[in-house]
Write a structure and sequence with these properties.
Blueprint: H1 8-13, E1 17-19, H2 20-26, H3 31-37, E2 45-48, E3 51-53, H4 61-72, E4 85-88, H5 89-95, E5 106-111, E6 122-127, E7 133-136, E8 139-142, H6 144-154, H7 158-170, H8 176-185, H9 192-202, H10 208-217, E9 226-227, E10 230-232, E11 238-240, E12 244-246, E13 251-255, H11 264-278, E14 282-286, H12 288-293, H13 295-306, E15 319-321, H14 333-336
Parallel strand pairs: 5-6, 13-14
Antiparallel strand pairs: 1-3, 2-3, 4-5, 7-8, 9-12, 10-11, 10-15, 12-13
Helix pairs in contact: 5-6, 6-7, 6-8, 7-9, 8-9
């Protein structure tokens, strides 16, 4: 009788997952045993070619993500090292909690010139620019800035590109300058949707609603505002960070994310408005749906406050920090041909 080593340590290390090579070579499981245990009703399941789930229940989102990496990793390599396969794109961002990032299909980086068959659940991405990696929820993943660029490269929806890239920056996973550099290295800035999203983030826009508001303002005769500037009173006390602010006129645009229910976010939005108004700032409030469906109403309100002809107090003396109005450089001739 052949006795094989139990795969429990392997299962604990890899979220109850293992490859065929690991089971038969590392753990010594006979192929006949592997076949019997993965039959219908058996204790194990075959999730992907050569990748097995060592439990009877369905896989969770982490296990599906790691299964994609196990499928793509070189058979003899340690798949958790992130040397031969790493999760990227929407699946990697979903593990980080990015709301609009799609967890499937899973994009997995592999080193060129190696090739691997794509599956419905897994899209191998061959690359010669191997990224720095980290482990997220037990899954080897590209760093967020690279995962965001890889997501943008494959996403067909401009709105989703905008939303996901904004969430990555807003969540603190990368700086907009680093994201711009990564997009440039990947030669993605020649694509209008990606270039627009990168430009908005460099300008200070941090959400899809702000991006739409910026679109509405572009092409009008209104002055260009500062986006997400941190405002301080003359004694250095932090006041608020409005979505858009016109320092010369003392006017702010606040986009209220809570449209229908009184939530903690709505309470904070009201408090910001009160603080701004108590220091003489004139505030226009709008919801994302108003900006989307009736943008002209927002423009009329802003135009009225920005061009006031009736006497008012001197605009508030506030200092805006944490923001620069940056101009995104145009791509080179070489980049524009890519």
């Amino acid at each position: 009788m052949i006795t094989h080593r139990a795969p429990e340590p392997l299962a604990r290390r890899q979220l109850n997952l293992a490859t065929r090579h690991q089971l038969t070579t590392t753990a010594g499981v006979p192929r006949t045993t592997l076949t019997s245990r993965t039959r219908p009703g058996g204790p194990w399941q075959r999730l992907l070619p050569r990748v097995y789930l060592l439990q009877t229940g369905p896989p969770d989102h982490r296990q599906r993500a790691l299964a994609a990496v196990l499928y793509a990793a070189e058979p003899t390599a340690d798949p958790l090292a992130g040397d031969t396969a790493a999760l990227t794109g929407g699946a990697a961002l979903a593990l980080l909690g990015i709301r609009d990032a799609p967890p499937a299909p899973a994009d997995v980086l592999i080193r060129g010139p190696r090739r691997l068959t794509a599956l419905a659940q897994v899209r191998p991405v061959t690359t010669s620019r191997w990224p720095g990696t980290l482990t997220v929820s037990g899954v080897p993943s590209a760093r967020p800035v690279r995962a965001a660029a890889d997501f943008a490269a494959r996403c067909p929806s401009p709105d989703r590109v905008r939303s996901v890239l904004a969430q990555v920056v807003q969540s603190g996973w990368c700086h907009p300058h680093d994201l711009h550099a990564e997009l440039r290295s990947a030669r993605l800035l020649s694509r209008p949707a990606i270039r627009a999203a990168a430009g908005e983030l460099l300008a200070g826009v941090r959400s899809i609603a702000e991006a739409r508001a910026r679109d509405v303002l572009t092409g009008t005769d209104l002055p260009t505002p500062l986006w997400n500037a941190r405002l301080y009173t003359p004694d250095g006390t932090f006041l608020a960070s409005p979505d858009a602010y016109w320092p010369d006129e003392g006017v702010a645009l606040e986009i209220d994310s809570a449209e229908y229910h009184y939530t903690r976010d709505a309470w904070h939005a009201t408090l910001r408005r009160l603080r701004l108004e108590s220091h003489g700032v004139l505030v226009v409030s709008a919801t994302p749906s108003i900006i989307r469906d009736t943008p002209q109403e927002v423009l009329k309100a802003l135009h009225t406050l920005l061009t006031l002809t009736t006497p008012r107090r001197t605009p508030p003396t506030l200092t805006a920090r944490g923001h620069q109005q940056l101009t995104l450089p145009w791509p080179t001739d070489h980049e524009s041909r890519l």
